[in-house]
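User: My collaborator and I are trying to settle a disagreement about how two of our proteins should look. Neither of us wants to argue from intuition anymore, so we agreed to look at predicted structures for both before our next call. Could you fold the first one, then the second, and keep them clearly separated?

Assistant: That sounds like a sensible way to settle it. I'll keep them separate. The first protein:
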Amino acid sequence: MAETIQYAQKVVSGRTQSKGSALLWITSLKTAIDTEGFVQQFSAELAGLVLETLPSYGLRTQQRAVNQWVTTALGHEEFLKAFAGSVIKACSAKQPPQNAFRLLEWSCLVLEQLPEGSGKAVQKLLEAQGNQLDTLINSSNSHTGQQRWRAAERVVMRLLRRRPSLLRDYTSAAAASSSPGLVKVTLAASLQQQTQQPQQLDSNAAVDALLLVLCDKVVAAREPPKPVQLAAYGPLLSSLTPEQLTGQLVPAACKAMRRTPEPAITALVGLLQYVKLDLSSSAVELVNLLLQQLRAKEAVRGVANGALSAIAARVQDPAVALQLVQCVCGVLDGSAEGKVKVAAERAALAAALAALADIPTTQPGMQEAVTTAAAFCSRYYKDE
């Protein structure tokens, strides 16, 4: 049997001119795995052999042959332990996207076979998996990268359909690490479960937990979030309930804007691109806070105007739209808080009023807000 290992190592490494790189795994090694004592004796060598295919097996047919063999071999406890350790070790090094995808596949195969009560092993595998998912999501801006990311999501979703109890572990790992890749796949699985099984407690708990992470670790962060972080929460933001919006996300954004205005406002602009709900009930509070910040801090004026535009575009109530216009006009002409003496501040407020032009004017009843803004501009600029 040692000869089988040696021959396999030559084929995998390309040291022999064999066209049977895929055939090896469905003939010689498949036969060997059924031989009593073979896997137990050579589990470490076999695990290493599988890992050696990372750089050399570029064809999907080759990779599938290896995966099928691994699935069978994982039925042996000795190989399961050896292979899990090898995968975790390989994941600790920075991998190119194509290798990250294969390591993700293997980690899912291991997770599917782990017995109940393997909490520590599951935790380590999910930490390792988060690194690979982040590599994949960070490289998903190309066509090939997008295809690879969608395939990665399918791999994890298939695992969670087969082992739904693992969703709790994915949720814990995503919440602890804030890994964009882990967050995105966990949300995808949770929201799918909510759609198919509305009473599924694990999926509801996952959404609640990750909304809390979004509020505490992304909105309230001291540094502006990266686009990939915001995109990871896109599925959650696009399916928010009104209660989640007004009870959690908006209060978190308001609190963060008072403490760390620039990163919080940057986060708000990014998050709102995914929100589909009417913001009428929260718009006045948000706009007043933004006006305070852009008056006080020159550095936030550009991003604050972006936030004002995003909020205005999501206001469906004509009375609220009019109130927003009146808020800005009242500050700008001095009727609300006294005359604005600094020219740069007046210019910033004028730009804020212009940002409200994204109010959906085709919405019935919005005409009064539009005419009020137009009349104010005509009068104000004449006096100015």
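The second protein, kept apart from the first:
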Amino acid sequence: MTEVIANGVDSKGGSLRKGSDPLAQTVRGKMQNRRQKLNYQINKEMRMRAGAENLFKAATNKKLKEQVALELSFVNSNLQLLKEELEELNSDVEAYQTDSLTTSVPMIPLGLKETKDVDLNIPFKDFILEHYSEDQETYEKEIKNLMALRQAMRTPKRNEEGLDLLYEYYNQLYFVENRFFPTDRHLGIYFHWYDSLTGVPSTQKTVAFEKGSVLFNIAALYTQLGAKQDRSQKEGIEKAIDNFQRAAGAFRYLTDNFSHAPSMDMSNAVLNMLIYLMLAQVQESVFEKKMIGGDRKSVV
């Protein structure tokens, strides 16, 4: 089972892979932190709404029903305001654009999906002992490295290093799924992810949901890298084209292999829309490249 964990560890057994500083005061960092807080607030309000709805159904006293109905209206109002704030945050594309003074059409990037911590230590150790009949403590360092890798990929840097981090964790999930997630047994591990567009939380026990969510973030990071390229230069345009094409490819792979995800942002309808959006941004970049090169006849 040693291939389950990559060899990216330091001399003390800690992971060499690091995410970006979640407290970094960059504009994009602030936006992602705000998105995370909104996701948690939306989750809290949804739990409150579910509780109020259950109480309203169970209540027999008319006065109590009126009080619960009033509370439910307040919760629904707060939830709507939070969703509108998240929608406004997601529509802010300026923070992801290049700093070039040359005017160009702003490209549309996507925010990353947020996720909660997952404790793999006890479930994995128990499974190693019961299923493989091996000393569970032997793999303590490897399990910690995997958890450190997952923690790091929650806040990837907005560059190639961040993509490498996401890809590394995504590839590790292939081995994890084969070793620790048999179809006839559940280890009590749940993966929590928030919809990148609405902030609504979703929970599943399958690794497929985890893989799909990480792949979505890979595609989203490609959109951010494509949007920040300096498209006043040919090289920047080519990089933008490459990133948007890779984003479209990742979204296409999601539609073909992860079509049963519970969150709206990973539904077929939304993913197909994102594919066409990325391809449209590719076409816009191709148009800009031809205009820079003076090839106006082929454009016409």
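Some points you might bring to the call about the second protein. The CA atoms of residues 73 and 298 lie 58 Å apart. The two ends are 59 Å apart (CA to CA).
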